[in-house]
Structures are given as C-alpha cells and as structure tokens.
C-alpha cells in the first residue's frame, strides 16, 4: 500500500523524542504522577500523528486529486463494463484495492476533497445512474436494480428512498 505518512526531518525528530520520553518514563520508578505523564506523552504523540496525517491532504493535493480522478474512472469502468451486474454493488474495498490504498485512506481522501466518504460517494454515483435510468429508460424497477448491481429490488428502493425521499416508482412518475 502506498499510503505511508511521509514526515519531514523535524516532524520525525519530534515523534522520536516523544517515544524516547515515553520509554524513559516507563523505565522510571512508579510514583503518583507516572500514569499522568505517560498518558500526556501518548496523547501528544497521537495528536501529532493526527496532525501530520491530516496535513497531507492539504499539502499533497495533486496525489489526492489523482486518487479522486482514478476513483471516478474506475467507477465508470465498473459500471459500463457489465462488471457491476455480475458482482453486485461496488464496495469500498474493491476500489481501495484497485487504487492500492486502504479503504480508510480512500475514505479520508474522498472526504477531504468532496466532503463524502467512499461509501457515500459510491451511493451518490449509484443514485445518479439510477435517476438517469429511471427517467430515460422503460426498464422495470427490478431490471434497473439488477443493472445497478442490487441483488434485490427492495435494497435498491430503500437506498433511493433514503437519498431522494422518493421510491423508484414515485421518482419515475415525477418525470412523466
């Protein structure tokens, strides 16, 4: 996976220093402040790691934008290749594997760029396609659900209702 956090020299020094402080404190005789000092150092370590992780989404716009572009292309290929009908709904894991990142990293990148995590992004794309199919084709709801990779039309209806406040029949009727 190519999602390793790359630290500057100063960032790496600060992380190593905190780890040394934790190790020193851990090896000292226990007193009534030992636990508080360890917790404070661990909290600082986690806060800095979070800072450095989140910073990459600000400073590495090109690589993260590339992930979004590749994700969009993969989704398009997944849908139009007929692969969706054979393999059901696309999963975050599927796209993350294809992009050589973890599902959590993919979600973080998409959230930083679009405000939606990977699953929300997939649902949005499915809803866009569902709307297109419901308004432009005379396929049955079951055929559309199957074409979108849903095993059961009820699952498709439930997703559409949750995102548009309309059932597929209601949505289609609003365009006739």
TrEMBL record:
Q: Which InterPro entries match?
A: Homeodomain-like_sf, HTH_AraC
Q: What residue stretches are annotated with the HTH araC/xylS-type domain?
A: 91-174
Write down the Pfam families for this protein, in alphabetical order: HTH_18
Q: Which PROSITE patterns match?
A: HTH_ARAC_FAMILY_2 (PS01124)
Keywords (alphabetical) are: DNA-binding, Transcription, Transcription regulation
Which GO molecular function annotation, any one, does this entry have?
Answer: DNA-binding transcription factor activity
State what protein this is by name. Answer: AraC family transcriptional regulator
Q: Which organism is it from?
A: Pedobacter endophyticus
